[in-house]
Amino acid sequence: MVPALGAPQSWQLPSLTRLADTAEWLGLETSQLLWLTRHGGKDHYHHRWIPKRRGGWRLLESPKPLLKRTQRRILDALLHHIPVHEACHGFRPGGSIRQFIAPHTGQNVVLKIDLADFFPSVTAARIFRIFLNAGYPEHVAQVLTRLTTHPTPSSSLPAHLTMLERQRLRTPHLPQGAPSSPTLANLAAFRLDCRLSGLAQATEASYTRYADDLLFSGGEQFARAANRFQIAVIRVISQEGFRPNPRKTRVMHTSQRQKAAGVILNESPNIDRREWDRLKATLTNCLRHGLESQNREAHPNFRDHLAGKISWVESIAPARGETLRAIFRQIPD
Question: 114-150: per-residue pLDDT in tens?
Fold first, then answer.
């Protein structure tokens, strides 16, 4: 174990220097470890394309039980001990939507930028560097990388994808659906967060990130520089290997409805009425017609999915959340 100079030397990580040590730490036989890390062999994922709410499709790559258990071990006992940037509030212990939006409430201007194809954009090469910086020798870093990244087989790629989209998915990347992917994506975006945080501070603005959602906001100085600032942000995003989604980029002034992550930011955090109405209608239909009648995206545990959405509303608008919770309690299993 030879961690990179600086912060990595203080990370409390398991010492893994041989494949046999790594297999034992993961609770696997060495033969099982080699089987799980053999790209191009037996596929260890289920692939499912699900429709996005605003059009298009998202690929969900769910690991099968043995690999999922292994990824969970890597997440809990290794990745959670590597700190992410303080501007990152998604998929980290103690992070929340409320912390993500709090600095941007009541600001003159809010700039929202979305990252396109966040997980597929993070290649195995970037993940390999994370494990190397943590101090793992190359052969161990390679094994950890193969356990947490995945090349989508050509048989799971529909014909409507562009050549670039197909190439991106066939390249080993973070699979959306693996328990380790969100934290690894946050770690891969550490330098992006550093650069964007510094850029925001130079303009007396605030910056936070929740997964692929980036938020910037500020007062009069930021308002005067908003257009130039947006160009600079997009340049940094591209230099760091990510892609902005122009359809989801918004510059929102105080005279407009400022919205991010389904929350209205203008004066105090509040739930978008349309989002609340949509969730209430879903719960009411579940009560009348059963849970599965509304499970259009085939969530494996739709009740837990709804409970999570209600908890999110309660964290922003407690009174509205209690209304939804009252309906939820009446829905039979």
Answer: 999 999 999 999 999 999 999 999 999 999 999 999 9
Q: What is the pLDDT of residues 285-300, one digit of tens each?
A: 999 998 889 988 777 7
HSE-CB for 322 with a 13 A CA cutoff: 2
Closest of 146, 133, 131, 140 to residue 17, by C-alpha:
140
Q: How many of the other CB atoms lie within 10 Å of CB of 10?
A: 8
First-to-last CA distance in the chain? 50
* pTM listed for this prediction: 0.86
Q: Which two tokens stand for residue 85?
A: 């940037």
The burial class, CB within 10 Å (0-12 / 13-18 / 19+), for 67 is: buried
- 147 phi, psi to nearest 5 deg: -70, -20
Q: Helix, strand, or coil here: 10?
A: helix
DSSP reduced 3-state for 41: coil
